Amino acid sequence: MEQIAQRAATGTLPSWEQVDGIVADAYRYASQDTGGHVADYIPALASAEPDLFGISVAQTDGATHGIGDVDVAFTIQSISKAFVYALVCDLIGHDSVRERIGVNNTGLAFNSVIAIELNDGHPMNPMVNAGAMATTALMPGASAEEQWEAIRSGLSAFAGRPLRLDEDVLSSEASTNHRNRAIAQLLHSYGRLDRDPSQVVETYTRQCALQVTATDLAAMGSTLADGGVNPITGERVVSATVCRDTLAVLAANGLYERSGEWLFDIGLPAKSGVAGGIVAVCPGKAGIGLFSPRLDSAGNSIRGRLAAAHLSRALGLNVFASEAVVTGSASQIVT
Which of 165, 191, 208 is the C-terminal boundary of a domain? Predict the structure, then answer.
C-alpha cells in the first residue's frame, strides 16, 4: 500500500501521481450525473453539447493535471467578473472599488433589479450583473475600445495566452441582453456609472464572450492562488493584495445566492458561468478549472460542483479546515 500523508488546507498537495489519480476519480464520480440543462436564454448557448466535461488542476508550482474535454473552447461568461474586478482593483485601488461597488451578497438572483432598488442604487458586489457592469465601467481608458483592450489583454495574462472573442455568442448575447441594458440605465440614474450605459453594456458583453478552456480557467485560478503571478508564464498579473481581496469577494458572492451552500460544502472561493465553466481557487496550492454545460436552477454546472466537492475533500483544499485530511490511494476517498 502506498504511503499515506496528512494534509490540511494550509499544508501542501500530495505527489503529482496522487493528484492525477484523484482528478481522474473526481471525473469518474461526477460523470455519473446526467441531470440539469444547458443554458438557453442566450440562443447561441442552447446548442452546447451537454455531455462535454473536463477537469483541469494547475498547481502553483506549475504542475498541471487534466482529464476529459479540457481543451474544448467555451465562453467565459460571468467568470470574467472575478478577473476584471482584480484588474480594476489593481489599477485604481482597493478603497475606491470597495466604496463604489461593495462586497456584500444580495441574496437575490445575479440579474436582479430589485436588489438595486432595495439598496438605493448600490450594486452591492462585483459578482452580480449590476456590480460587474459598474466594475467594467471603472476600467481606465480614454474610450470604450481602450477599456476593452485592457480587459482582453488582462484576462489573457491571467490565462497565459491570448484569448479571442466568440463572435457568434457575442452577437447572440447582444441581441438578447435587454435586462442588462435596463440594469445599466438604472445604475446610471443613481449616479453609479460615469460612462455611457450602452457602451458599458457592450464592453461587458464582449468580456463575457471571450473564449476559454478548462485549462485556461485552471491557470487563471492558479494565478490568484499564487499571489498574482501566473505559475506557467511567470508573469505578475496583479498584486498579492488584490488576489486576497478578490478571493474574499468570491467566497462571499461567487455562486450568487448559492454562495453559502457552496462554501459550506466545498470551502473554496469560486466563480461560475452559464456556459458551464467554474473556476475554484485554493490559496497557495492550485487553481481548478471545470467545464460541463449541464446547469442547476441557479445556473451553476452540476458536474462541476460535484467534481469540485470531490477534489476539495480528497486533496484537503477546504480553506476552513484545520484538521489534517488523510490522503492515500485515490480509491480510499469517499465523496
Answer: 208
Report the CATH number that the domain containing residue 248 is assigned in CATH: 3.40.710.10
For the residues 313-331, what does the mean pLDDT come to? 73
Containing domain of residue 86, as a range?
80-208
Q: Per the structure block, which three cell numbers stand in for 282?
A: 485554493
Whether residues 184 and 298 share a domain: the answer is no
Average pLDDT over residues 288-301: 94
Residue 332: predicted pLDDT:
41
- Structural domains of the chain, count: 2
Q: Annotated catalytic residue: which of 27, 29, 85, 204?
A: 204
CB 104 within 8 A of CB 111: no
Count of H-run helices and E-run strands, the chain: 13, 9
Known catalytic residue: 56? Answer: no
**For the whole model, what pTM was predicted?**
0.93
In this predicted model, what pLDDT tens digit does every residue of 156-177 receive, in sequence order?
999 999 999 999 999 999 999 9
Which tens digits make up the pLDDT trace of 17-37?
Answer: 999 999 999 999 999 999 999
Known catalytic residue at 189:
no
Say whether pLDDT at 195 is over 50: yes
Last residue of a domain, one of 151, 181, 208: 208
**Measured between alpha carbons, how far apart are the two ends of the chain, in Å?**
21
Q: Which is the catalytic residue, given 274, 279, 281, 325?
A: 274
Residues with Cβ within 8 Å of 332's Cβ and at least 6 positions away in sequence, in order, are 326
Active site includes 204? yes
Q: Let me know whether 88 and 64 are in one domain.
A: no
Considering the domain architecture, whether residues 55 and 170 belong to the same structural domain is answered as no
- Considering 56, 81, 156, 200, which one is annotated as catalytic? 81
Mean pLDDT over residues 302-320, rounded?
A: 96
Residue 334 confidence class, pLDDT cut points 50, 70, 90: very low
Q: Can you point out the beta strands (E) in the chain?
A: 5-7, 54-59, 64-68, 74-75, 211-212, 270-272, 277-282, 286-291, 325-327
Is 96 catalytic? The answer is: no
- The catalytic position among 56, 78, 259, 301 is 78
